[in-house]
Amino acid sequence: MEQLSDLPNIGEEVARQLKEAGIGNYEHLKELGAEAAWLKIQEMDESACIHRLYALEGAIRGIKKSLLPENRKAELREFYNSCTFNGFSYMIVIKYRRKKNGEYCDSGRDRF
Prior knowledge:
This protein has about 110 residues and is mainly alpha-helical. About 55% of the residues lie in helices and about 5% in strands.
């Protein structure tokens, strides 16, 4: 496939985000894996949700995200939940807490 947007589940916006994250082709996406690629996108777009993670995994497998095996979806959910708090990324929660405590740092790269 010539372009990332030719992959299942990958539209122009996600393809743009992948390229911006330094992932320019399918081979690199596959090498990184869905989780690492999602983290790179999530650093730029804090709204990246579990469906984006499923979409990336489906793209790697060459299938629609709805056809992912349930055991793989469960693994991805566990990963996603470990990176979020009530649906918000830890990055957002940490930024909010710092701002609330007068210690706001807007570098966008703060993760614990």
